[in-house]
Design goal:
The chain contains 7 helices and 7 strands. It is of the alpha/beta class and 196 residues long.
């Protein structure tokens, strides 16, 4: 019997169906449910964590279970937490100051010509190039290392010449950035909206 359960038994109070605690800055809600057969951890997009447990399982046991899975919880929260609107606007402002300038520098350096440049809050892509050679860049690029920014910009500038991902495209891309493919593989592991 857990200490919490023992106290309720001694005082004659009815057992609580829920309790909360804060672990490493994470607000965790423990909730007993009559139909639960096992402990279930549900990270929320607001940064909180809901832990559902069977009615006969002690809160102490549930807390131990959470501690054992704390690394997993943190990784799940990192992918679920949504950026606050003010953070997005700060990145947008910074992106408009940095990205067009860097685009112009790289285009001039490697002899590319492009149409217009747009800064977007894309959810799934870092950048794109239209058939009219207008370039879209993700505002979240400013949260990444410079090599990632340059890779994305050069990738899209290369599309002003080749509108595909065939051999000729990569030949030109790696001519201007020899380690482009290695950077590309690392960038695939970076979730949009985070920093690197």
């Amino acid at each position: 019997m857990s200490l919490l359960d023992f106290i309720f038994k001694k005082t004659g109070k009815k057992k609580r169906n829920s309790c909360t605690e804060n672990i490493d800055g994470i607000f965790i809600v423990y909730r007993k449910h009559p139909f639960s057969k096992s402990i279930k951890i549900t990270p929320k997009s607001n940064g909180d964590v809901l832990v559902t447990l069977p009615k006969n399982t002690s809160f102490t046991y549930a807390k131990e279970f959470v501690f054992k899975n704390l690394d997993w919880i943190k990784s799940q929260l990192k992918s679920k937490i949504k950026l606050l609107p003010e953070i997005i606007e700060e990145r947008r402002k910074l992106a408009k100051e940095i990205l067009p300038k860097r685009l112009d520098e790289l285009a001039s350096k490697y002899g590319f010509k492009y149409g217009k440049v747009y800064i977007k809050n894309h959810k799934t892509i870092w950048g794109s190039c239209s058939f009219r050679n207008n370039i879209n860049l993700n505002l979240h690029l400013v949260a990444l290392n410079d090599e990632f920014i340059d890779y994305v910009i050069l990738h899209e500038l290369t599309h002003t010449v080749h509108k595909h991902h065939q051999k000729a495209f990569y030949a030109l891309l790696t001519k201007n950035m020899p380690n482009a493919l290695e950077i590309q593989q690392r960038l695939k592991k970076v979730k949009i909206g985070t920093s690197q």
